[in-house]
Each structure stands twice: as C-alpha cells, then as structure tokens.
Amino acid sequence: MAKVKSKKKKRKQTRELIILIILIFISAGLITAMFTLYAQRKKQADQPPVNVPHRPEEAPAEIAELPPETVPETTEPPVDENLVRAEQFMQNMTLEEKIYQMFIITPEELVDNAVTAVVQTGNMSKQALQEKPVGGIVYFAQNMENAAQTTKMITDAQNYVLGLGHAGLWIAVDEEGGTVARVADTLGTTSYESMSAYGAGNDKDAVFMMGMDIAEDISQFGFNLDFAPVADVAINPENELQDRIFSDNPAVVADMVAAEVQGLQNSGAVSATLKHFPGLGAEDGNTHEDTSAYIERTYEELDSVDFAPFRSGIEAGADFIMVGHQTMSCAEDKLPSDLSKTVITEWLREKLNYQGIVITDAHNMNTIIKNYSSGDAALLAIQAGADIVLMPDNLNDAFQTVYDAVENGNLSEERIDESVRRILTAKAKHNLL
Asked: What pTM was computed for the model?
C-alpha cells in the first residue's frame, strides 16, 4: 500500500516538474520576443524619417494642403471708390441731368449764342447752367483775355455748378503744344516746338516733361481736360494735321503719345485725350471745311499702323479718346467714324478693349452739319457708343432728340447710364462730385 502511494507521489512531482519546465520555456520566449521588438523599434527610431507621400484622399484634412501656387485666391478685389461715388451720385439724377452730362459745349452755345464771345460767368451763364447742367465747357482763345479773367471765369462756373449740387464741369481746351496752343498763345504760358520736331528727336523724356509742364500751365487756370495728344500717323503728307503729328513712323508716334499721356496725367489734375481715332493721317481732305472725308484703308492697315499709337496711349491710361469724322472704307456702315458703331463699339471698345471715355470730334464741323441735324448726329453718336458729344451746333436740338429717343424707346436709359457712369467715375477722380 505504501509503495502505491510512493509511485503516485513521484508521478505528481514529475508532472509538476514538466509544467515548470514548460513555463520556463514560455517565459524565456516572451522575454526574447520583447527584447527583439525593443531592438527593432530602437533601430527605426535611430534612422532618419522616410517621407512617404499620401494620396490626397488619404491625407488628414489638417495637412492636405495645395501647393502654394495653386492656393485659391481668397482676397476680395479692391473696391473702386470712384465708381462707388459715381453710382451713388447717379441714383439721384434725373434723365434730363444724365443726358446733359453727355455734352461738352462752348460757352457761347450755352447761352444760345446771345453773345459772340463769353469772357465771364455772369448771370446769363449761371441761369443757363442751372437749366442745362452740361458735362463740360470748352474754351477757345476768344474767351481768354488774361490770366486773372480766365481763372475767375472758370472758377465761377465750376463753383456755381457744384453749389447747385450738380456734377462739376469738364473744363476743356486744345493745348497740344506747337501750332495748337490756345493757352500759351493767349495767356503767355510756355510755348513748345511742333510735335513733328519732337518726333524727329524721338526723345520720350522730353515729351513726358512737356506733358507735365502743359498740365501745370493749364490747370492753374482751372482746366482739367486737354484735347491732346494727336495720335495720328503721318501716312499722307497732304493730311490736314501736318506738323501736329509726331511722325510717319507708327512706333515713334506710339512712344511719343504714351509719354505725353503719362506727363499730362501725372499730377492727376488734367485728363489727356487721344485723337483722332481710328486715324486721320491718311486723309487728304479737311474735316473742318469739306462736306465729307473718305479714307481708303483696309482694316489690316489700320490695325498694324494707325492703331499702334492708340494702343500705347490706352496702355498709358488715357482718360479720353476722341473719334474723328472721317469715313473709313473698311467700315461696313460707311458713316463718319464718330457716328459709326463699327468704329466705336467693334473696333475701339471690343478690338482695342478701351474702357475709358469716348468723345466725338466737334459736331459743328462741316462733315457733320452739312449732312446731319444736330439732333440726328448726337443720337447716332450715342447709339454708336460715344459717351460725350462735343460742341453740337445746336445743343437744344441735340438734347431734345436724345431725350425723345429714350422716351419713345429708340434708345434705352441703360445705354445713357453706361456712359454717365464712365463720365462720373472720371469726375470723381478729379473731385468733381
């Protein structure tokens, strides 16, 4: 019996020993595994990190960034404060007031030619400005007797209009320098050589300085709009402009025009005007005296030669472009250019992308008055895309025809607003609102 118990005890001890040995092996394996894992992680930690690119959809939102050059622009475009002021001002204008803004006239026409030469802003002029708040007045040599008189005449007109709550006036003059210099010839400001002499010298710096000096000379009297520079190319030596043109080389004219525009507008006191789009340099007649001026020219010729100075003037920031009365053979409507939608809207606005103010040449010249009434010419010009009609032969007729066209639906008020918005935005820049 004792032997049996002894055997059972030995078997029990043997089993316990075996279990202990197994547990020791298991523990040793676990310890070995732990040391191996620790060694591997330490080795990885000691190595430099490897940048593995993530696919965009796998990247966490906070690190899924676009490359700097493709980051979407989040800033708002700058607000044009002048445009905002123009819009606010226009909201309080009547249709009549808006249409009158689209005319620049002589002081004599303002008073229905009751006097042959206006030299002061007297009661008659003030009454007319109250009834007919035009966009501007253009003065000539006959209106300027001396510096003090000219300054008072202009200042009185400007202050009176602003005091009525109307938009201030464009006070315009032809001051090209050279042979066309109304202020220099009458008031004794600086005189300059002909533009052809400047073109021959091809000195952009000299032309820039001339522009700056002219702006200073005329702005001291109150002028804020200069009908300069001439941007035509001397293609036909018989053209009416002669030495008012810089050169027969379009590249030279382009350089001179850009320099003068920058000089004239440098101070911000005077706006420049490129003239006479689409180009008068190939003409052999005279738009002042002839009943028509027809120029045989292909669009390709215009685009490569005549338009070059206008492009450079537009790039230089010219506030105004004057469209002439010449009829271009390649314009389908065969109308004087300032009455032609082809010229103003298709060529100047769309092809050359000009966004500034388009003004006609003077509508009291023979090429207009011998063929159209003042009203018809003004309406055609505005329908073509012009913003301002210069010097209608009869303001009352011109205004009434345009007004009636809006009233009877032949011209939309939106079309009027389009031009007035441009005019007022430019006037805001000159603190005329």
From this structure: 0.82
